[in-house]
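Query form — protein MFS transporter

QUESTION: What is the three-dimensional structure of this chain?
INPUT:
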Amino acid sequence: MILKLLVTRRFAPLFWSQFFSAFNENLVRNMLAMIILFKVGAERAGPLVTLALAAFIAPSLVLSGLGGQLADGHDKARVARWLKLAEVGVQVVAALGYWFDSIVALYAALLLLGLIATLYTPIKYGILPDHLRRDELTAGNALVEGAGFVAILLGLAAGGLTGLEGIPKELVVAELVVVALLCLVSTWYIPGAPSKVPDLRIDRNLFGSTFSLIGDLRRDPRMWVGALGSGWFWLSGSVALVLVPVIVKQQIGAGVEVETAISLFFAVGVGVGALLAGWLCQGRIVLKHAPWSVAAMGLFLLDAGWTTATAADATERVSLSAFLHSGTGLRLVIDLVGLACAGGLFSVPVFSAVQSWAAPERRARVVAGVGVLNAVMMIVGASVTALFQTPWLAVPNPVLLLALGVVNVGAAVYFGRNLPDAAAAAAAYIPVEAAARPGE
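ANSWER: The structure tokens for MFS transporter are given below.
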């Protein structure tokens, strides 16, 4: 099924569009992080790197409602093309920021990319049930999530490499432009998905329309718990990716190559977990293993926190080879890959369930509501983490990892008690018609 989906027009253009989008967002974000980590100074790096994450997800708090309404009220493919055309212009801002080492310009580009991502997310997830059959939906989500994290992996690597000496600036600028053009071209081939409610009016109250989406989710207990599950995955992953690079830089003495490798290991783990979830589900929506996956996330976080808390402070810069051959480095890599893999196993079936429970005429707004909740939870996680990192509190980063692990164990108990079982999920499934799929 996976190979078949990758060569059909009803899925392949969307697959590549979101792949290049994810690559681009993480290229710019890690480019900014490298400039902060190695040019601003270690004492200010933690809060500024955390702020970069907040800048990217902040537009979700304002524009998710608009994104859901645009996707439900218009042809999703057409809206996607206009968004990716605008993204080409944003890349110019990012290129200028990199060329002149301007943190302000890179923050601006990241904020604009977050805006585009907010409007694009309801389209890319809302259009999947329009073009995929019921038995293809979990596999499609697994591919989108898995490929998305491979793109994150590559984007983080490319962004990390921009921090190395000797990399021509012209090459990086060309990369930014080419990626934006590839994203635009692939989006242009997404098959049309006409609106089922073409007379849907856009609510001019952006804040009201955005946060009303959360109220809509809360009216359905299954949808609410599933949305909380999606948000919990993003909160845990984003906070871990904020803490670990700072830890390996400040405490272990890692250089750019280790920072990049850490991000790559995490992205590989999520991709493997997502694809493994698609394989295990075999066209069904299976939620029995989801709470155990969250418990595993907690255990890996606890071990990562303990490993870094008990590690001796480095007295010299550590190379990638030395890091991977050290007990601390190898154990931390195993913990990160395990955390990411467990996260993928949890997020894919939970989000597929939410998609399946949503009525077709409201599906994009449901996806947008999940996006709002994801953003709120990530912002809360990032803000609390940044608060504890400030000089006034100065809580050690390994202790914050330990705390995140403890909270994940508690979250596993919550989801174990509140997520519906597989039979309930299957009974609640809303069938998706298989008619009118171009490019089969």
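ADDITIONAL NOTE: Confidence is low (pLDDT under 50) at residues 422-440.
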